[in-house]
Amino acid sequence: AVRGRLLEALGSGVDEVRQTAAQVVAQVAVVEMPEGFWGSLVETLLGFATCVPADVGRQEAALKTLGYTCEEAFASELDESLLRSKSNQILTAVVQCMRADLDVVVRRAATVALLNALEFCTDNFSRDAERNHIMTVVCTAASSDQDPDVRRAAFECLVRIGEVYYATLEPYLPHLFEISVTAMRGDREDVALQAIEFWSSVSEEELNRHDEVALSAGAAPVPDDKLPKNFIPKAVPHLCPVLFECLVQQDEFQDDDSWNKATAAGACLALLAEVPAAGVLPFVLPFVSKNIVDQANWRTREAALTAFGSVLDAPGAVDASAAAAAELNTFVDSFVPGLLSIFATDPQPMVRDTAGWAVGKVMLQPEPAQKFVAPACEAVLKTLGDEPAVARRACVVVHNLASTFEDHASDPVGVLSPFIEQLLQGLFLATLRDDDTQLKATAYESLGRLLRAAPEGSLPALAQCVPMLMERLQKTLTETPASEEDKTELSEHQGLLCGSLEALTLRLRAEGIAPFSDQLMQCYLAVFQQGNAASVHEEALMAVGQLASVSGHAFEKYISHFVPFLNIGLRNWEQYEVCHVAVGVVGDICRAIESKIEPFTDEIVGLLLTALQNPSLDRSVKPAMISCCGDIALAINGSYERYLPHVMVILKQAAQSSAQIEVSPDDYDLQEWVFSLRECIFEAFSAIMQALKTGNKEALIISEVTWLIEFCAYLSQEPNMPYKASLWSSNISASEKLIGGIVGLLGDLVTTLEKDKPDLRSLPWVSQLVERGCRSENAGVRETCGWARGVIFSQG
User: Fold this and answer.
1) Counting beta carbons within 10 angstroms of the beta carbon of residue 790, is it exposed (0 to 12), middle (13 to 18) or buried (19 or more)?
2) Distance CA 621, CA 332 (A)
3) Which end is more exposed in the chain, N or C (fewer Cβ atoms within 10 Å of the end residue's Cβ)?
4) What is the mean pLDDT of residues 459-475?
5) What is the DSSP string of 131-176?
6) CA distances (Å), origin 579, targets 404, 584, 623, 667
7) For 477-491, what is each residue's pLDDT tens digit?
8) In angstroms, rounded to a whole number, what is the distance separating the alpha carbons of residues 325 and 186?
């Protein structure tokens, strides 16, 4: 009865009722269809959509319901076969309803329904005749329909087809180019944006396929239908001139959040340049040279800068050839002096803004950054006081310069040395500006990066920053926010200050930060106290962890005051990022004060074990928690005995879970997590063995050796299991690290359990793993496996 009433509502004379009913039917369908109910729904909707004489309102509602159902089914990962088996009927009805002679409301709904149904049309796209018909209908709608909303939706279909059915595009590309260029040049802006997006989606898909080929080197070959078809290099000569036309159609007051033909064209050009062998340089560089000198038209100058920045660091821009790379380097050398002048002096703010963006990209490249560091710093010092958007670019230039030279921070003097004090002063002033909150955040982030990159000889200048930042942090503690928005802004400001102080603590080390340690800790504790009972400040936690790391045993005097707040962080499962940071800080403190943490470990270990058994805690935190159990063991050595039975249960459960979990070949995040979990299990077990041996209690671990070796044996066989092989072949680097972890743990077993050591020499999988690890490309893995081979196979 309920289903019948819902279907009746699709024919209501009230538009709002029809729209709501369409959404409700779709929601009910994705629940009932997998259970075998409402199997007639699709046929009923198709009947409504194609009935004669037409009821336009019910036609529209039925088509929208089909679209919503497909969308919900895809989003909820419904069994595709439920809709794929009906794709012929759905496509027939939807395509029929896209005819130009039907009501525009029906055509719009049908085109959107097709967009949502495309995921389930794999079989149809595999058959030439059906695919040709679909492409003809969609291209006709995109180019010829009288309604711009239909044209936009049709181009959205083409975007999705470019992503999902990329391998089938080749016969249609000439016509697709023709209709997309027509739309880019003359259609309504939202239609033009989708036409540009089509080429962006093809570029992105082609780039992803090149990446897959690169990742598969030395592993299973990529199937033919997953290989890049190199559409983009063929399109570039024809597409670039059209994108250049769009680049000069900027909104006069656009910003980073603006999305128009100019910004979309810039994003598309950047993607084109990323595609290997795309060959964009012969088109981009002449456009840049011609238009950058046009003093009469700011739009052409800004477009030239966008084009330059888009190809600056893209692999496809240099066509993988030394000649193209040399050409770009020569162009950069000649272009950057003028670019810096534009950044500092151009009369148009948007041009200065884009110039600053391009300068930031240049400063990420070591050679030009070193060559132009002096004029770049001069330009930055002039523009830090400019309009907020331009000043933000200046901050990013500093950030990027610092990132480029951060590896040289241990040098007594570096290329940044002459400018450190002026840049620090300029960034400090920028953080005080109250005309743009985003500028304040960017300035603080750049300040933190500069503090990390400053050469050793600049440490006295850095030390002068500590009292200034502490004073600002203390000032925030006296502020009373009037609203939730003010409270959020205050917390963010405190986070930025804590981040800068964390960077200073790292650089100044124990001797440099010691004079400020008491005041710093007082500030951090006050920040914690200002929070609520359920949460603690993430950045303040990290700052405390850094202070503990550099202070060592001197941190002991703060521990009793800090642990209550640390435990709040460990309980904060809802804000799992905070919980993750708190876990890391436990490790920092264990390494800093060692056994002095023991009075507090009962509660800490209890919180860790409870969290590890909680299925609602985000899985990303759990490997770190397991590793933290090892950190605590190394700190308190033999006293860890009281936690051993409980921790071993958790480690065994985690090992079993990692073996049972099903990982699809393309779920890279889950693959990475599984490897991380296993690596942390081995790290924790090794740490616990070492700790117990130090306390002369290594015999306690003997009862756990059997399951551990069985787990290692299972992992050694995983690469040969059909349903597990892809986990290893897709993650060569991670799998080699894991092999190092397994073999290292086996070596630790032999050296720790001297009287009761297991004889591993007779196990073929052990020698196989050891030899594989000794051939690893990872030097650390080779070293570990070489050591383990010596101790395992020399057992007496």
Assistant:
1) exposed
2) 44
3) C
4) 96
5) HHHHHHHHHHHHHH-S-HHHHHHHHHHHHHHHHHSGGG-GGGHHHH
6) 32, 9, 12, 25
7) 999 889 988 888 899
8) 36
Q: What is the mean pLDDT of the chain?
A: 90
Nearest to 689 by CA among 756, 625, 614: 756
pLDDT in tens, 313-324: 776 554 556 777
CA-to-CA distance for 792 and 539, rounded, in angstroms? 44
243 exposure class (CB count in 10 Å sphere: 0-12, 13-18, 19+): buried
> Distance (Å, rounded) from C-alpha 452 to C-alpha 416?
12
- The DSSP result for 741-754, as a single string, is HHHHHHHHHHHH-T
Q: How buried is residue 277: exposed, middle or buried, by Cβ count under 10 Å (0-12/13-18/19+)?
A: middle
Following DSSP, what letter does each residue of 404-439 receive, concatenated? HHGGGTTSSS-TTGGGHHHHHHHHHHHHT--S-HHH
Q: How many angstroms separate the CA atoms of 283 and 370, rounded?
A: 28
Residue 373, token pair as written in the block: 């560091």
Question: Would you call 329 helix, strand, or coil by DSSP?
Answer: helix
**Three-class DSSP labels, 530-552:** HCCCCCCCHHHHHHHHHHHHHHH
pLDDT at 316 (0 to 100): 54
The 3-state DSSP class for residue 251 equals coil
Rounded to two decimals, the pTM is: 0.85
CA 31 to CA 73: how far, in whole Å? Answer: 9
With a CB cutoff of 8 Å and minimum separation 6, the contacts of 603 are 563, 567
Nearest residue to 213 (alpha-carbon basis) of 198, 200, 202, 229? 229
If you compute the radius of gyration of the chain from its CA atoms, what whole number of angstroms results? 31
**Token duo for residue 418:** 């002459």
DSSP 618: -
Q: Say what angle helices 622-636 and 601-612 make with each other, to 10 degrees.
A: 150
Six-digit token pair at 472? 């600002």
Average pLDDT over residues 783-787: 94
**For residues 222 and 432, which has the higher predicted lDDT (pLDDT)?**
432
Read off the pLDDT band of 233 (50, 70, 90): very high
Residue 174's Cβ-count burial label (10 Å; 0-12, 13-18, 19+) is exposed
Structure tokens at 274: 């990323």
Give the integer Cα–Cα distance in Å for 541 and 528. 9
More confident residue, 531 or 434: 434
Question: Quick one: tokens of 639?
Answer: 């006293």
Looking at 165-254, list the stretches that DSSP marks H as alpha helix, in order from N- to C-terminal side: 173-186, 189-215, 231-247
Structure tokens at 526: 């006050």
What SS3 class is residue 470?
A: helix
CA 655 to mean position of chain CA atoms: 27
Number of H helices, E strands in the chain: 39, 0
Closest CA to 76 of 122, 144, 28: 28
- Of 182, 168, 318, 325, the residue nearest 231 (C-alpha): 168
Q: At what angle do helices 189-215 and 261-274 cross, to 10 degrees?
A: 20
Cβ-Cβ contacts under 8 Å for 228 (sequence gap 6 or more): 206, 209, 210, 213
Enter the tokens of residue 111: 């085109």
| DSSP state, residue 222 | P
Distance CA 242, CA 487 (A): 48
Whether 34 contacts 78, CB under 8 Å: yes
Rounded-to-integer distance, Cα 702 and Cα 758, Å: 9
**Residue type at 46 in one-letter notation:** L
| Residue 644, C-beta contacts closer than 8 angstroms, at least 6 positions apart | 688, 692, 700, 701
Q: Tokens in use for 108?
A: 């719009």
For residue 366, give Cα distances in angstroms to 318, 372, 449.
Answer: 17, 10, 16
CA-nearest of 102, 130, 193 to 156 is 193
Neighbours of 237 (CB within 10 A): 12
